[in-house]
Amino acid sequence: MFFVGWIVWETVALSVEQVEIPIKGLPPEFDGFRIAQVSDLHGNRFNPAGCEVQAIKGAGVDLIVATGDHVHRNSKEGVKRILPFMQALVEIAPVYAVSGNHDHWTDWPYIARRFRNAGVTVLENNHVRIKRGAGEIILAGVSDPYTGHDCLIQALPAKADTVIVLLAHTPAWFEPWNAADAPAALQRISLTLVGHTHGGQIKLPFLGAVTTASGRLFPPSHVEGLSREGDGWLYINRGLGQGWPSFRFLSRREVTIITLRQGD
Fold first, then answer.
1. How far is Cα 189 from Cα 228, in angstroms, rounded to an integer?
2. Which secondary-structure segment (H or E) carries 127?
3. What average pLDDT does the segment 173-198 reach?
4. Which of 203, 20, 98, 91 is nearest to 212 (CA)?
5. Sequence-ordered alpha helix ranges (H) in the chain
6. Which run of H or E residues covers position 209?
7. CA proximity to 67, closest of 159, 155, 162, 142
8. 206-255 confidence digits (pLDDT tens)
């Protein structure tokens, strides 16, 4: 019974990760700029006044990003469950979203339409410019690379005249075993925010994640958290929901609060 209770607690407990990231060339107006990241809702129901929303509201964020797998198997039922949560986020700060593999395996056009109607900006291989005072950064988003809907070149501006933050669903481009397939345009990006892995979802003591959505057993890297990738950074969010199996162990649900800092 103790072990069952532990699994239940690990599945419902929320971890709020506070991360500061130094960005070379960041405009001074964006020093201290805060981004909340959520990911992998998987059609789970979240209280629009619950701990996830309160954590983001209390952090004083400037914008919120949702990095894919918003639903699981049923797009209409999944959107119905998560829409109140997304609407609560829109009331806090501007919300930007990209697609994940499960979204395309169901009905992504329907999900995107419902999101836009709720006030969410959906990025589909495009970008927007975020202004703060006299400074600006570029927020780009690619459609899900895992299902082949991505076009990074299209998502980025022709000329990178400022810092680029990229939203994607999967860290596949950064995984060492996929390095040969990584697009050269990644070198232009200062920070990439992704989900997909669930942080392994199930971890074993001393051994780490049993597997991730990449399909590798006991992956040596790129499971969760912050990593240096060339001249840029990658952050992998563990997600808020789960598909199958429907529990977590030693890999708690996550809301990330990212603070951008000027760096060398």
1. 12
2. strand 126-132
3. 87
4. 203
5. 2-12, 51-58, 75-90, 101-105, 108-117, 152-155
6. strand 208-209
7. 142
8. 887 887 877 777 877 888 999 999 999 999 999 999 877 777 877 899 99
pLDDT digits (tens, 9 = 90+) for 133-175: 999 999 999 999 888 898 999 999 988 789 999 999 999 889 8
Q: Which residue has 């994640």 as its token pair?
A: 209
DSSP string, 107-126: -HHHHHHHHHHTTPEEPSSE
* CA–CA gap between residue 62 and residue 114 (Å, rounded): 23
The CATH number assigned to the domain holding 64 equals 3.60.21.10
The whole-angstrom separation of Cα 88 and Cα 218 is 37
Q: Which two tokens stand for residue 208?
A: 């780490």
Q: Residue 114 is encoded by which pair of tokens?
A: 């419902």
Closest CA to 230 of 158, 176, 161, 162: 176
Record the pTM: 0.95
Number of domains in the chain: 1
Q: Which two tokens stand for residue 38?
A: 């959520």
Q: How many of the other CB atoms lie within 10 Å of CB of 258?
A: 24
